[in-house]
Amino acid sequence: LKNMKCSVKNDHSAYKRAAQFLRKMADPQSIQESQNLSMFLANHNRITQCLHQQLEVIPGYEELLADIVNICVDYYENKMYLTPSEKHMLLKVMGFGLYLMDGNVSNIYKLDAKKRINLSKIDKFFKQLQVVPLFGDMQIELARYIKTSAHYEENKSKWTCTQSSISPQYNICEQMVQIRDDHIRFISELARYSNSEVVTGSGLDSQKSDEEYRELFDLALRGLQLLSKWSAHVMEVYSWKLVHPTDKFCNKDCPGTAEEYERATRYNYTSEEKFAFVEVIAMIKGLQVLMGRMESVFNQAIRNTIYAALQDFAQVTLREPLRQAVRKKKNVLISVLQAIRKTICDWEGGREPPNDPCLRGEKDPKGGFDIKVPRRAVGPSSTQLYMVRTMLESLIAD
């Protein structure tokens, strides 16, 4: 905000002029505070520079940042995000993480040589999506993180995202064929479920099987992913256009006296792009309305599916690890597994079966040991989910 917008500096200048006129800054302390604030506003990247300097005195800080960057790479590569803001956050964390790691103490290119991080993969991501929204009407070119890092100049040839090239990101007209195809396919599938669930009124009244709930769960997820994908397209094209304004040479309709914001918005879109924007936004709104009609059905299916998956895992899947831990007398492992089950299990009858052979480290009888896992439309609380994830991670972490 301080770097990109003049409003903060202009407000401070106006305040100083008013204070001098009213003679409110006569004492030395006020003068010193004003000078410090002026220097802070004048020095770009002051906050990130101070953070960088303070991190470098912490031993092994680059290892933690490398883990964070690797997690973001994994999430982005496997599309483990839902909303556009989550997608763009992963890219920004990658870039800012590399900037913080590259300095006097650590070198990201040496970390790449040791295969601690994968710069070529990040370069590919930044090449595909060059500009992302930052805040409000502010955007950032992801390559800027790389260009401002300490060892960029001597390793410039390793990056393709920093070279000026035309990005497919802004060409929404080329993406429209795929968007229309996805829209038609999903709307057709949604209509089939909508007729049986909403029109006939069988959505909430009838108890479905786990497979039927799972199908509705997957349908809701695909719908949300499509809405997110299309919304991200709109935001990314808009961001690209703001960073790359047109001029009278590229657009004959753009007058030479046009303001910079006009060149970035009013004169920066062709008729085809405007029609494509309207069509995509109409698809987003239309699909949102259709999914909204099935919200209660989707809610029921999502809660049932999550409950079933979590309870089956805790009550059935964890039995074998617990049996092996008891048999080999791994007390720490036993306590963690038991804590997970106590945290999340919703037992049939309200209590854990005391005669379960796995609790004694014994094999199940030949006929098997029957555990009836109940079915309810109740998801876990955020605390339960956090505790279970943390305890599971403690079992497999290095």
TrEMBL record:
For biological process, the GO terms are: regulation of actin filament polymerization
| One MF annotation (Gene Ontology) recorded for this entry | small GTPase binding
Pfam families the record matches: FragX_IP
* Name this polypeptide is given: Cytoplasmic FMR1 interacting protein 2
Q: Which species expresses this protein natively?
A: Hypotaenidia okinawae
Q: Which InterPro entries match?
A: Cytoplasmic_FMR1-int
